[in-house]
């Protein structure tokens, strides 16, 4: 037997019990409550994707080192959910729109998203990133995509993200006045020199 349930609106996070009752041509039927099998099957409805977020690097920051990418994953609905399964991460270099694929040269070679599996524990995800080829003076975007144990997932077209600016170049300075060769002065109204940022953040 089959029964179409496509028009039934199931509530997310709610549990449902299925009962069947057979009646023969003599109108003999099992008594109410005596379902087959015993106990009857129970299922919980969950078609909502979890919600991920990128916490570090924080949106819009200028940073000199990137050791770990991290964020959170929250399952929906808050109760009666299937549970978190995994988080995938995509990293894009905004200068040319290419994604990190781990291949040489440069590491950022793909115009199509390449996802990396993050470590997930107690609703927090992390991904070691100290060896990634971050380039000074460029913006990068980190996107996260969460999955629950039913493979409900966040849509790729609207993934949570964080953009940050990377600059690990050290500035340099020079003293112009007083001149190094002259040790004595009768007056010294101004100290002066130069400063140059070998990165691109500016002094």
* Gyration radius, rounded: 30 Å
Largest sheet descriptor: 7 strands, mixed
Number of strands: 15
| Amount of beta strand | 35-45%
Secondary-structure class? mainly beta
Note poorly predicted spans: none
H and E order: EEEEEEEEEEEEEEE
* CA(first)-CA(last) distance: 76 Å
Number of helices: 0
Mean pLDDT: 87
Multimer state:
single chain
The gross shape turns out to be rod-shaped
Q: Helix share of residues?
A: under 10%
Summarize the structure.
By secondary structure, this protein is an all-beta fold. The protein has strands spanning 15-17, 42-44, 51-56, 62-63, 68-74, 84-93, 98-100, 108-110, 116-117, 119-121, 124-128, 138-148, 161-166, 171-177, 192-197.
Q: Could you explain how this protein is built, in words?
A:
- The chain has 203 residues and is mainly beta.
- 0% of the residues lie in helices and 38% in strands.
- It has strands at residues 15-17, 42-44, 51-56, 62-63, 68-74, 84-93, 98-100, 108-110, 116-117, 119-121, 124-128, 138-148, 161-166, 171-177, 192-197.
- Strands 4, 6, 7, 8, 9, 12 and 13 form a 7-stranded mixed beta sheet that branches.
- Strand 7 and strand 8 form a beta hairpin.
- It is rod-shaped, with a radius of gyration of 30 Å.
């Amino acid at each position: 037997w089959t029964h179409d349930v496509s028009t039934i609106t199931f509530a997310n996070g709610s549990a449902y019990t299925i009962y069947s009752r057979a009646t023969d041509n003599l109108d003999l039927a099992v008594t109410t409550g005596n379902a087959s099998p015993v106990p009857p099957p129970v299922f919980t409805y969950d078609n909502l994707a979890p919600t991920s977020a990128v916490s570090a690097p924080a949106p819009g920051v200028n940073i000199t080192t990137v050791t770990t990418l991290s964020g959170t994953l929250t399952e929906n609905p808050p109760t009666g959910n299937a549970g978190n399964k995994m988080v995938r991460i995509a990293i894009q270099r905004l200068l040319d729109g290419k994604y990190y694929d781990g291949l040489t040269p440069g590491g950022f070679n793909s115009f199509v998203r390449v996802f990396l599996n993050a470590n997930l524990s107690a609703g927090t995800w992390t991904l070691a990133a100290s060896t990634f080829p971050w380039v000074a003076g460029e913006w990068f975007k980190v996107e996260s995509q969460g999955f629950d144990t039913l493979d409900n997932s966040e849509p790729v077209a609207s993934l949570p993200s964080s953009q940050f600016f990377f600059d690990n170049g050290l500035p340099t300075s020079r003293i112009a006045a007083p001149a190094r060769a002259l040790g004595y002065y009768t007056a010294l109204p101004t100290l002066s020199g130069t400063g140059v940022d070998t990165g691109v953040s500016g002094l």
